[in-house]
Amino acid sequence: MTLTSRRTPRWVLALVACALATAVPLGAQEKSRGWTAYWENDSFVLADGTDRNYTNGVRLVWAAGDAPANTFRGRSEDWWRKLTPLLREGFVFTSSAWAAGQNFFTPSVITVYDVDPLDRPYAGLAYFGLRIDATDNSRDLVTNTFVRRDAFTSTFQHSLEVDAGVLGPAAGARVFQTFAHVLRENRIPKGWHHQLPHEPFLSANTMWRGRFGTHFADLTPHGGVMLGTVQTYPYGGATLRLGWNMTDFPALLIAPTAVPVRQRPEWEIAFVTGVEGRAMLRNAFVEGGLRPDSEGIDATTWVGDWRWGFSVRLTEWRLTWTQVRRSSEVTGESPVAGVYHDYGSLTFGYEPGRTTSGDREGTFLGAVVDGFLGRVLDGFLLEAGTGPADADPVERAQGSRVGVAKRVWGDRIALGGEVVGIGRELGPPPIPGGDHRDLFLVNKLITVRAIPFGRLGPGRLHVRAGGGSGLSKLQVTPGEPGERPGPCPAGLELDDRRRRCNRSETAAGWMLGAGYWFAMPTDRASLGIDYSWNTIRLDEAIHFATVTLGFQWHP
To answer: Fewer CB within 10 A of the end CB, N or C, for the chain?
Structure first.
């Protein structure tokens, strides 16, 4: 049986084609290694943020673009055009990408152990995926010699992404949310033991979009279909941009285009607004999963987003900030039925083009990007981790840490900063209506880091010491939703904005730590394990220790 047999559905062949294209380069291709990091969170809003509904999403895309002179040739091209409709006449394969991400959702109240059966469930998803993009008008988009400023262009793109992962506790949503809340010294989430149970996740997302306009104004309508075990829906929308030197397609929410290779102006700026509507045929994040014990509530059929923000690119570096208002995903008698939700999206990426540092030498942008930024980023690292923590007494303790460092002397000494802390719940789950008590111990430090063997980079032992400000914070929240009915317990002060009671003590903090970072296939990132011993010098010194597994990035 051939690959074009009628017994094999065409969409199955398209998914196979996507996997083959991303895993195995076809023909002699010139690769451009770019990346884009997405972070969406309902704390990134101009108004007061909340932890409810879609509360956090992260995504990292590693992209490889193909120069237009190295598109598919001969038999490879023939196979592709038979396997997938993406590469029909006039379209060329412009990029492939690997993607990994995590999304999670929570009910409207996260400080109670027993969730409201009428509220949406806790749900976490983690996935890994492959993506391809095929684009027409490749002269303008891919080589992009930057057509005349007054020229009107139309460019079309088809994209296909296949993802696989897990829905349920193994997605790590509980750990990630607790990690963030410990560093914020605010509300350890309580109800994650009620989250949707484990089940595998598979999806395929195909999208079409066309860009119509000039370098200072364009309109990009888009539409597509998401088919998956967790969500299934057709969707459509449009994005309007006003700016200067605009290139490529605008970034959408948590679903990017991969990075093509191109020449282009050295900078661009754009103000962006857009809408998207979805007809939700299935939404497991609200209705529950496929398993019989996966409980949910009634979901709405029609969901819409309105977004606005800006995008700035300076040579290869792009930053996009977006504010989003989403209509309610819940119907029926739920406390969040009919209630919209606001969240923010921050996107930062490296988009390599054909312009090199030699081309920019002697220019203003050359001095800024290759001079200032080059010196700052050289020898720079960023790391984050989470894991078990130890203090006396210990109940459900989790440690969190983030750090940054910059080489300041040779290859072995770096100066930086670090925030490390633990959050622990005091006592067993309270009776209904009782108070929850959380204790946060957090150090904010200036650190000196030494690399005794080798030089700053992955695959190295790091030792460090730091000093700064330490915080011990006791927080009391009501065990039931709503405002506190009475005054705070003795010794605690009311936080009027958040309607909870706190007692905070600050003093000098100290830390000693060591970690080993294991090299990954890329020299820009590494995984590692770290131990830190911390002291907060209150009237009676408080000690705590963390053992964290983490990620380290060298830009």
So the answer is: N
Contact between 80 and 44 (Cβ < 8 Å): no
Of 316, 139, 146, 159, the closest CA to residue 225 belongs to 159
More reliable by pLDDT, 279 or 458: 279
Look-up: residue for tokens 């349920």?
168
Tokens of 243: 């700016």
Distance from C-alpha of 71 to C-alpha of 88, rounded to nearest angstrom: 13
Give pLDDT tens digits for 199-258.
999 999 999 999 898 889 999 999 999 999 999 999 999 999 999 988 778 877 665 444
Residue with tokens 């203003």: 364
Q: Please, are residues 122 and 90 in contact by the beta-carbon 8 Å criterion?
A: no
53 Rama sector, left if φ>0, alpha if ψ -120 to 50, beta otherwise = left
- Contact status, residue 280 vs residue 329, Cβ threshold 8 Å: yes
Query: Which amino acid is located at 199 in the chain?
Result: E
Number of neighbours of residue 293 by Cβ within 10 angstroms? 8
DSSP string, 490-520: TT-EEETTTTEEEEEEEEEEEEEEEEEEEE-
Cβ 238 vs Cβ 293: under 8 Å: no
Q: Residue 431 class from Cβ within 10 Å (0-12 exposed, 13-18 middle, 19+ buried)?
A: exposed
For residue 331, which of 119, 509, 512 has the smallest C-alpha distance? 119
Token pair 């200036």 in the structure block, residue: 446
Average pLDDT, the chain: 80
* The token pair that represents 345 in the structure block: 């999206």
Measure the CA–CA gap between 59 and 37, rounded to whole angstroms: 6
Q: What is the DSSP string of 330-395?
A: B-TT-TTTT--EEEEEEEEEE---S--HHHHTTSHHIIIIIIIIHHHHTTEEEEEEEEEEE-SS-S
Q: How far apart are CA 13 and CA 15, in angstroms?
A: 5
CB 164, CB 131: distance < 8 Å: no
Distance, CA of 380 to chain centre: 21
Query: Which helix (H) or strand (E) is 199 found in, with range?
Result: strand 199-213
Nearest to 227, CA basis, from 9, 39, 4: 9
Structural domains in the chain? Answer: 11-369 (2.40.128.140), 380-553 (2.40.160.20)
What is the CB neighbour count within 10 angstroms for residue 193?
Answer: 11
What are the tens digits of pLDDT across the range 385-415?
999 988 765 556 889 999 999 988 877 899 9
